[in-house]
Amino acid sequence: MPNFVYLYVLVSKPGDTYYEQTLVSVASLRYHMPDANIVLLTDDKTFANLIEKRAEIKNYVTSIKYVNLPETLSNMQRSRWLKTTIPEHIVTDFLYIDSDTVIVDSLEEIESMKISLGAVLDKHSLLSSHCNRAMIEERSKKMGFCATVDDKHFNGGLLLVRRNEKNVEFFKMWHSLWQECVKKGLSIDQASLAQVNYMMNGLIQELPGIWNCQVEYGISCIDRAKIWHMFVTGDKFNRRPHIFMDPVFFHKIENEGLSEETMNLIKNPWRGFKNKSQLINGVAVDYFNSYLSRLCCLLFCYSPKTKKVFSFFDKIAKMIILKLGKKIS
Q1: Is the sign of the CA dihedral 43, 49, 54, 57 positive or negative?
Q2: How far apart (Å, rounded) are the C-alpha atoms in residues 93 and 115?
Q3: Counting beta carbons within 10 angstroms of the beta carbon of residue 67, is it exposed (0 to 12), middle (13 to 18) or buried (19 or more)?
Q4: Residues 67 and 204 in one domain
Q5: Among residues 312, 311, 310, which one has the least CA distance to residue 300?
Q6: Same domain flag for 35 and 183
Q7: Could you give phi then psi for residue 315, rounded to 5 degrees?
Q8: Which residues constitute the domain of residue 299?
Q9: In this structure, what are the phi and psi dihedrals at residue 175, rounded to the nearest 5 degrees?
């Protein structure tokens, strides 16, 4: 489909790794789809700093469009401003793709998919069983929003959008609701996305998880996935299983660009899983995502001294578990 656009939104300054994440994703898309029409939508400040080492991305995109935005906006707000106003700048059908992704197969099939507005469930889960349900509902309640339609809460990291009046209206409402959120201190766009979907009677259609495989939660579809969504975080406890989730990796790209080693990882991302990783299920997932788990990491795993304290309590826990195990037996 000649007019179909694969769209990325980039707002970045040197040192923050958003540029490097986008570079990896765009390069992976270009590797799997050499003829894809890839458009980078950015703001005036970011466009001005796409020079020298940061100009490498121009080798992979088809074109770059930049928009002058109000000076008062933070970088996070700039990125959401652009994302919620995409139809004002792109006049064709498009697939919006978050920067913290890697393309692992051709996406050509989605160009002819009979869906007007499509997205994948957040964490591949209905809201009623979502690991972050309480936080999602709390944010929506704060805004007076509804977080779900038919128990579905969609991830905004990938959006398939056909150019039509309803979808243009959808984005206008989304932008307006997002601006309301900003006034109340909520700069992210998920709550407003869910609310506009609710107000438009569930306009978003569910896409199969393979189109936005959120790696830590999408094990059931990862082998068939088209896109891996990595969620790059500054996790000081190194709990993330893949190198594409590690900001240190992207800081390395900041200095080296796309080296042969990095390109090999882009071509075969399975090689990026870290050795000390394991699959978990059930209550272990609930614990891993709980604030108690994060508190334990914060208190006991941050320095050599606190690790010793953790080891002490771990030995006590071991004795308790062994004694309980014998009684249960």
Answers
A1: positive
A2: 11
A3: middle
A4: yes
A5: 310
A6: yes
A7: -65, -40
A8: 290-329
A9: -65, -40
Domain boundary among 171, 191, 214: 214
Residue 318: its H or E element: helix 304-328
- The pair phi, psi for residue 19, each rounded to 5°, is -60, -45
The residues, any chain, with a CB within 8 Å of residue 276's CB and separated by 6 or more, are: none
Among 214, 244, 275, the domain boundary falls at 214
- Tens-digit pLDDT string for the chain (329 aa): 568 999 999 999 999 999 999 999 999 999 999 999 999 999 999 999 999 999 999 999 999 999 999 999 999 999 999 999 999 999 999 999 999 999 999 999 999 999 999 999 999 999 999 989 999 999 999 999 999 999 999 999 999 999 999 999 999 999 999 999 999 999 999 999 999 999 999 999 999 999 999 999 999 999 999 999 999 866 655 678 899 999 999 999 999 999 999 999 999 999 999 988 878 887 887 787 787 877 777 776 656 677 777 778 778 887 888 877 777 76
Max CA separation in the chain (angstroms) = 69
How far, in Å, CA of 64 to CA of 51, rounded? 13
Q: Which two tokens stand for residue 122?
A: 């957040």
* Amino acid code (one letter) for 176: S
- The letter for the amino acid at 56 is E
Regarding whether 299 and 210 lie in a shared domain, the answer is no
- Tell whether 210 and 329 lie within a shared domain: no
The residues near 117 (Cβ < 8 Å, ≥ 6 apart) are 159, 160, 161, 162, 166, 167, 170, 203, 204, 205
What's this model's pTM, rounded to 2 decimal places? 0.91
Q: Which amino acid is at 1?
A: M
